[in-house]
Amino acid sequence: TGAGSGLGRLFALEFARRRALLVLWDINTQSNEETAGMVRRIYREMAEAANAAAPRVAADGEKDVLPPCNLQVYTYTCDVGKRENVYSTAERVRKEVGEVSVLVNNAGVVSGHHLLECPDELIERTMMVNCHAHFWVI
């Protein structure tokens, strides 16, 4: 979650380098798609490098190469602060991608205000995204 920027984007790029199939969630469709583009670029570079490298022959005569891998990235726009949006997006992921084996529950908001100067709506939004959403996503 929160894959469109910051730590969420960095996590996505690192998991891509480790050949993971990724499901990216963010409230911002455009920034989430930008992250997916970066991930696809990493996947392409890895595929090109694998194709360019001559396979080495192991002692038993077998080629010593990584097996082909179907690297993919899926993007979903999801407001994790809204429980029903989380539940419906999770159901779409199950149907379209399958079960998730690793979850990086990273989405978060910061109000930028001192607590006593923070409007109630911002406090509620902060609690929904930074606390409740983690339970809903899990």
Structural features, described:
- It comes from Syrrhaptes paradoxus.
- One of its GO terms (molecular function) is oxidoreductase activity, acting on the CH-OH group of donors, NAD or NADP as acceptor.
- This is RDH10 dehydrogenase.
- Belongs to the short-chain dehydrogenases/reductases (SDR) family.
- β2 (56-57) and β3 (63-64) form a beta hairpin.
- The protein is mainly alpha-helical and 138 residues long.
- The strands form two sheets. The protein has a two-stranded parallel sheet. A two-stranded antiparallel ribbon has the order 2-3.
- It has helices at residues 6-17, 29-52, 83-96, 120-137; strands at 22-26, 56-57, 63-64, 73-77.
- The model has no long low-confidence stretch (mean pLDDT 90).
- The chain has a single domain (6-54, 70-137), classed as NAD(P)-binding Rossmann-like Domain (Rossmann fold, 3-Layer(aba) Sandwich), CATH 3.40.50.720.
User: CATH superfamily assignment?
Assistant: NAD(P)-binding Rossmann-like Domain
Query: Whole-number average pLDDT?
Result: 90
CATH class: Alpha Beta
Q: Give the tally of structural domains.
A: 1
Q: And the CATH topology?
A: Rossmann fold
SSE pattern: HEHEEEHH
| Strand portion | 5-15%
User: Could you name the ranges where pLDDT drops below 50 across 5 or more consecutive residues?
Assistant: none
Number of strands: 4
Based on CA atoms alone, the radius of gyration comes out at 19 Å
What is the CA–CA distance across the termini? 11 Å
Keywords: Oxidoreductase
GO molecular function: oxidoreductase activity, acting on the CH-OH group of donors, NAD or NADP as acceptor
Organism: Syrrhaptes paradoxus (Pallas's sandgrouse)
Pfam families: adh_short
